[in-house]
Give the backbone structure.
Amino acid sequence: MGVKEEEATFDPGRPSIARVWDYWLGGKDNFAADRALAEKMLEINPLAALMARENRQFLGRAVTYTAGLGIRQFIDVGAGLPTALNTHDVAHHAAPDAKVAYVDNDPMVISHARALLAKAPGVVAVPGDMRHPDAILTNPELTATIDLTRPVCVLLSGVLHFLDASAARDVAVAFTSAISPGSYLILSVGTGQEDVAKPFSAAYTAAVLYIHSPDEALTFFEGLELLPPGLVPARGWEGGAPAARLTERRPTFLAGVGRKP
């Protein structure tokens, strides 16, 4: 997804972050190694697939909300494999003239995105690693579609837990520092209690995971106005509404939307 994996070339025998998530989301672009790892993760945390779906649903609500606020440009960083509730599908439903740039460092993701998504008007898929925001924002393919002199919404959905807190903050701040006033950041990040988070991270052999605390996640919105309901569990986020009261289980993803003044 948004962080470079160890594999330099396509190898279906090694699990991929994007394909594990594809499996959890009910997709078909995954292999035996991906399914084996995904099931292993479910043994440790049976909520893993549900959290993936809840995060995807948050993404859809947040894109709809920011489109309703007038945003017509979206940059989805670490987009993952095309699946249900793709960013451009949601954005075009809310605003048919919206433009979307998908960014990922996985060649398989970019290949699929270009074949299946980039056929839509105003949609482009470009290679890029979230750890290098400047390279992403100056990519000629991206800037041919996205006008960075105008407000834009950057999506960092379910990717910053592949970086430690300091690096994750630096990435988020670099993106939001580069975009125009009136722009937005949609962000979600993994959280959880150590008794589940540590073994879950240790078993996730496709990449290193860092489980961020709410205080750490709040620093990712530095320089932004955090919109109501603030930083809350992803399943309880509704733009402009009070935070939902969720007590039946621990949050697995924290989510929020910030606006650049």
User: Anything to note?
Assistant: The two ends are 29 Å apart (CA to CA). The chain is about 40% helix and 15% strand. Residues 2-8 have pLDDT under 50 and may be disordered.
